[in-house]
Specification:
Layout lengths: L37 E4 L1 H7 L7 H13 L4 E5 L5 H12 L8 E7 L2 H10 L5 E9 L2 H8 L3 H20 L6 E9 L6 H15 L7 E7 L6 H14 L6 E7 L6 H10 L4 E4 L13 H10 L11 H12 L20 H17 L20 H5 L8 H12 L5 H18 L5 H12 L6 E10 L10 E10 L2 E10 L1 H11 L7 E9 L8 E9 L2 E9 L2 H20 L1
Parallel strand pairs: 1-2, 1-8, 2-3, 3-4, 4-5, 5-6, 6-7, 7-8
Antiparallel strand pairs: 9-10, 10-11, 12-13, 13-14
Length: 571
């Protein structure tokens, strides 16, 4: 009998969260969000403190300006009393008038008087500011860190709330303050106790239409499945004092890898505001990823009120300022999130693109693509259909069509697809569009290595002939293996006549003409034409492609190419 395998230490763990004291599941009846929350970027605080090498002053200023550029109206700029760097950064923003009038900066402070005092000193001259007060309320923090009772921990919060209000009321100038309170480690706190502490703070601050209060509920450590966080949020939302003047803010972390889901369910449950970072940077496993939450709203037809229309630029900024890489499969922002290598996926995407164009669809509904890559600055040609050994006929045809204008006949696509798969498989690598075009050109277009039609003239036969309305006589000058011949033949159309002429020559090139397609490569009046010819011998099909300014010569080039491919294989 085999020994049972697993992780025996699982027995030392148990859920560390607390359910609300009453049922809180009204959020289940809401299908999706119909508007964006208020966003607050904490990249410059939570994000910065998680970096191996924190940002320099210049990098912080540049990142702040970038966050403003993409539309953030609330940005937590740091903990100004924590270090001289943080303090100097805030003063630089204020003294150099770098904060737009419609942007509110947010600063973090502990509930200690000298820290609160320095925090307010750092804000001199600012127009709009959120003062964010926090203290930890969880069972683990109370018992292990503070070794304090519930009442003692609550007093830390209320004492800080009193001081924040006093400093704001006596602050010189006309700065507009908003107060924010976070029961840090909210998810490890008894929910009724968290409510008690928050309401005690609210009662001191007395929020109004002129000065709201933000109650921020951090999943400082993500301890539960997302539906539990939603129930905790709903209970708090229903029972907070002065709810009409309180903005309920969510601050999920990603310890369990479900921060985005927790955030979305938290918004359904009453969350008005979200604190997070671009691509989820933050301590340990990170904060909630605002890019993903915002773009999820976008995918439901909701304006996220943040501008991610140039996602490559956003990803580049994130990598530059944080010295971190965006995962290539990161939702929306990764370099490969729209890339399809699978042949069946590529075929469906290509058909979906054509269907949308042909039917002028008003809504996006393309197989395998949640959103239109163009909406986030991605290109179909470079980012969607990618060719490797897993790719199929539809993908290769799509690349050749969208990049180079070749509308490959359906019967030809499989052959080209297998050729590209074979080359990719042998090289163990992806093929770029330019490589695909080069291979296609060398193998199929205007080949004259063993056989060439040097010239051709055509005479239309009388309708009375046995060939009917399309009767044609062809005189062709051909070069076969270095020798030149003049051949004549009659047929039902030009290509049929040429094929019959070739059967008369000394090499008796006896192939069956199978099919012919043609189209313009460009839209201009003097555009080149592309022709596709298939011939057969002993049930084996040979394709050729001809390109020329004259459609007749394009078709002859295609026939010539098909014959060259047949002769090469016969050798």
């Amino acid at each position: 009998m085999s020994e049972k395998k697993g992780m025996p230490n699982h027995v030392k763990y148990r859920p560390g969260y607390f359910m609300p004291p009453e049922k809180s599941t009204s959020w289940v009846d809401r299908e999706y969000m119909d508007k964006a929350p208020r966003w607050c970027s904490v990249d410059l605080r939570d994000g910065n403190q998680a970096l191996i090498v924190p940002m320099s002053l210049d990098e912080k200023v540049e990142f702040f300006q970038f966050l403003c550029e993409i539309g953030f109206k609330e940005i937590e700029v740091g903990f100004p009393a924590a270090s001289e760097t943080e303090y100097t950064f805030l003063r630089t923003l204020i003294e150099n008038n770098l904060i737009p009038d419609d942007v509110t900066i947010q600063v973090l402070t502990q509930s200690r008087e000298h820290i609160i005092a320095k925090t307010f000193a750092s804000l001199e001259g600012v127009k709009n500011a959120v003062v964010h007060l926090y203290n930890s309320t969880s069972v683990a923090q109370r018992n292990q860190v503070f070794r304090a009772s519930k009442d003692e921990v609550k007093k830390i919060a209320t004492d800080g709330a009193v001081l924040v209000k006093e400093y704001a009321d006596s602050f010189p100038g006309d700065t507009h303050f908003t107060f924010e309170y976070s029961p840090e480690s909210f998810t490890g706190t008894e929910i009724d106790y968290a409510l008690e502490v928050c309401n005690a703070v609210i009662d001191i601050w007395k929020p109004s239409a002129e000065r709201e209060t933000i109650i921020n509920l951090p999943a400082t450590v993500e301890m539960s499945m997302p539906h539990v966080y939603a129930q905790q949020i709903e209970y708090m939302s229903k029972n907070l004092h002065c709810r009409e003047h309180v903005s309920l803010s969510l601050h999920p972390h990603n310890d369990r890898g479900t921060a985005v889901a927790a955030c979305e369910l938290g918004m359904l449950a009453g969350g008005d505001r979200v604190e997070g970072t671009l691509f989820g940077n933050g301590e340990r496993t990170g904060n909630v990823d605002i890019v993903t939450v915002a773009m999820n709203l976008f995918s439901h037809g909701v304006d996220p009120e943040l501008d991610f229309s140039d996602m490559p630029k956003v990803a580049a900024a994130y990598e530059k300022f944080n010295d971190l890489k965006v995962n290539p499969r990161q939702p929306y922002g990764g370099s490969l999130v729209f890339a399809a290598f699978s042949g069946s996926h590529q075929d469906a995407i290509a058909k979906g693109m054509h269907y949308k164009e042909d039917n002028n669809q008003p809504y996006w509904d393309c197989p395998y693509l949640l959103i239109d890559p163009h909406d986030v600055g991605r290109e179909y040609e470079a980012d969607v259909i990618r060719i490797n050994s897993q790719s199929g006929k539809g993908g290769v045809a799509y690349v050749l069509e969208t990049n180079y204008g070749y509308d490959i006949p359906k019967k030809m696509r499989e052959e080209i697809g297998y050729l590209m798969k074979h080359i990719s498989d042998e090289g163990h690598r992806e093929l770029t569009p330019s490589e695909i075009h080069l291979i296609f050109t060398k193998e199929y277009i205007n080949r004259k290595d063993k056989f060439a039609i040097d010239d051709a003239t055509f005479v239309k036969l009388p309708k009375s002939s046995s060939l009917g309305d399309n009767g044609m006589e062809a005189t062709v000058d051909v070069i076969i293996k270095g020798e030149t011949f003049k051949l004549k033949g009659k047929g039902n159309g030009r290509l049929d006549a040429v094929m019959n002429a070739l059967r008369q020559g000394p090499y008796r090139l006896d192939y069956e003409f199978v099919t012919y397609h043609e189209h313009a490569l460009e839209s201009e009046s003097n555009s080149r034409a592309a022709s596709y010819v298939a011939i057969a011998k002993d049930s084996k099909l040979y394709w050729g492609v001809g390109v020329h300014n004259d459609i007749i010569y394009a078709s002859l080039n295609a026939l010539s190419c098909a014959i060259n491919r047949a002769l090469t294989e016969e050798e």
